[in-house]
Amino acid sequence: MPSMAQENWSLDECIAYAITHNLELNSLAYNVASSKETHKQSIRNLLPGISGSTGYNIRYGRSVDPNNNDIVNTDFFSNSYSIGSSIDLFSGFQKLNSIKASRYIYKAVQEDALQQKYLLAFRVMSAFYDIRFYEGLVVIAKEQLTISDTNYVFVKKQLELGLKARADLYDAEAVLLTDKLAITQAENQLAAAKLVLIQAMNLENVTTIELRTSLAEIEKNKATAATVTDSVYATAQAFLPSIKSSKLRVEAAKKEVAIARGDLYPSISLSAGYGTGYYETSIDDITQEIIAFKDQIRDNGSSSIGLSMSIPISNRWSGRSQIKQRKIALAQADNDLKVQEQELFKLIQQLIQEKNALEIEYQQSLKKMEAQELSFSIAQKKYEKEMISALELYQAKVLYTTAKNENLQVKISLKVNESTVAFYNGLPVFKLN
Q1: 91/30 Cα distance (integer angstroms)
Q2: In this structure, what DSSP letter does residue 316 have?
Q3: Alpha helices in 202-314 (DSSP H)
Q4: What are phi and psi of 115, to 5 degrees?
Q5: Count of C-beta atoms within a 10 Å radius of residue 223
Q6: Are the CB atoms for 417 and 347 separated by under 8 Å?
Q7: Is-contact 180 156, C-beta < 8 A?
Q8: What pLDDT is recorded for position 415?
Q9: pLDDT tens digit string along 306-352?
Q10: What does the pLDDT look like over 16-26, one tens digit per residue?
Q11: Cα 213-216-221 angle, rounded to 5 deg
Q12: What values do phi and psi take at 427, rounded to 5?
């Protein structure tokens, strides 16, 4: 894991750091842990329930002797102990279905957490390439400033030789100042883009960040992926966490319906118990003394075992109403899954169309940039020979700068698009812990 004090960051390092330090993901981790414990408890519910009790009672006045049921008028105390256990033998398979339902929910919550990691990775990637774009703008602006500065020096010398008017120097100076302003604006946009990445990564005590991957490496390491919508959709549908989560919730909803149906079946349970006690009224017939505590505990012991059945006859139709509610929830979960699949197909369809368009735009913008560069070079030579005005040179320079900016923007957009399509096509775009 990279440290905050490191000199520069790669995209994978930015994503890894963001995932580790994101508080929202920490909250989802708690949800996963809670869901896991719920599933474990659903399994433990199959075990017998065991309970014990003890009591100490003092009776005053006329009362019934619990030892022999005689009516007595003396004060006395008694002490009782008992332990019991019960287990459900049959309850309409509700506990088994609860185990399955909680397992599906547990897996769904895990997929939800993974989906949020991917979404965070996309946000970090977008911020990462935004920085690269604005860094490119700064480079282009500085290149243009160098050209303007050279022109300014040239015009100044020509003015000293009496070959240029002072108005030409003012024009050259205005262009120079405009380019300086463009650098300042690009640097401000770059600083804002870096702040977005810093916040997405939850980096603390830093005000700027430097990236490792260069623009040249971005263009060289292009991700490759199939561009057939159905193929990409089939792949994404099989592994995308949001789709898997929706499918698991549908399965959980089916088990919830089965749980509700279990209320309509009879339930059978087995129970067993043991009890004993000590009574102050237990007198030895020979010695006329109270029988010793340990002897009473031994002699007063009693055991029990029982089998019971509960048959639902009428519960004001609430059982069947609950089944209907669970069926509605199942239909809703199934519809949510279809909505997710539909949105995924639309997204992939849009991404692939955008990818094809950007590839064409990139080639066209590349040719346009080369043409504008040649045009500006010719204009520069014409200006030096006083064949065109400073305004015409400036217009050629603006067109060249615009062409370079457009090419850079398309290049970055294409890279982000290619990475996104590659992700949905199952390629390892992100390295998640």
Answers
A1: 32
A2: T
A3: 215-220, 229-239, 241-262, 293-299
A4: -60, -40
A5: 16
A6: no
A7: no
A8: 93
A9: 999 999 888 888 889 999 999 999 999 999 999 999 999 999 999 99
A10: 999 999 999 99
A11: 75
A12: -80, 150
What is the amino acid identity at position 51?
S
Q: Residue 263 and residue 269: Cα distance in Å, rounded?
A: 15
Residue 1 has pLDDT above 80, yes or no: no
| Fold (CATH) for 11-47+89-263+318-424 | Outer membrane efflux proteins (OEP) (1.20.1600)
For position 164, what pLDDT does the model report?
81
Q: What string of DSSP letters covers 366-427? A: HHHHHHHHHHHHHHHHHHHTTSS-HHHHHHHHHHHHHHHHHHHHHHHHHHHHHHHHHHHTT-
Using an 8 Å Cβ cutoff, are 379 and 396 in contact?
yes
Residue 322 structure tokens: 């609950």
At residue 225 the predicted structure's pLDDT band, cuts being 50, 70 and 90, is very low
The structural domains of the chain, with segments of one domain joined by +, span 11-47+89-263+318-424, 49-86+272-311
Closest to 223 measured CA to CA, from 419, 423, 411, 408: 419
Residues 6+ apart with CB under 8 A from 197: 14, 124, 127, 128, 130, 131, 209
Question: Does residue 224 register a pLDDT over 70?
Answer: no
Q: Which tokens belong to 418?
A: 């290619």
Spatial strand order in the sheet of 267-279: 49-59, 76-90, 267-279, 302-310
Cα 194 from Cα 208, distance rounded (Å): 6
Determine whether 3 is exposed, middle or buried from the number of CB atoms within 10 Å of its CB (0-12, 13-18, 19+).
exposed
